[in-house]
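WARN retry 2 of 3 for item q-0093 after timeout on previous attempt; input resubmitted unchanged.
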Amino acid sequence: MKAIHGIAIIMILFLSSCNSEPTLQKYFVENTENKNFIALDVSPEILNLDKTKLSVAQMDALNSFDKMNVLAFKLTDKNKAEFEAECAKIDLILKDKKYQQLMKFGSGKEVASISFMGSDDHIEEFVLYANKKENGFAVVRILGKDMNPTNIMTMISVLQQSNVDLEQLKPLQQLMK
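OK item q-0093 returned
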């Protein structure tokens, strides 16, 4: 009987210690199957790179990149209220102190921001958020290990050399229509 009580106490402590705060990861999981969203996971293989032509710095940058998750909300006449509610949820999540905003720009109808989670030298996640009032919004999570701003700038040069497999990005074309 004491063993059952002990297990019950451990379970209660475990469940009460679970973090119930909203996170982008939870947000992505909750909305992946929602008909208003388009969800896409992109691996580094989408770049179709000849790795033998990359410099050491470029290989380091590429190796720090694990994957990219994209979640896009397509706005229609029928889902405007849900659009506003979802925008408010994203804004709330990105205001959390664990996300450090690098920049924010836009006008009244278009807003975009770049944030990151982690320390300056060990970035775990970059977050790109773009909201266009007449189309919808997209949130992009770039996940990696020990990413840093230098790696990101180097990745831009790698992207210029890539032969992106556009077939993997087809679901996003629906959002642009």
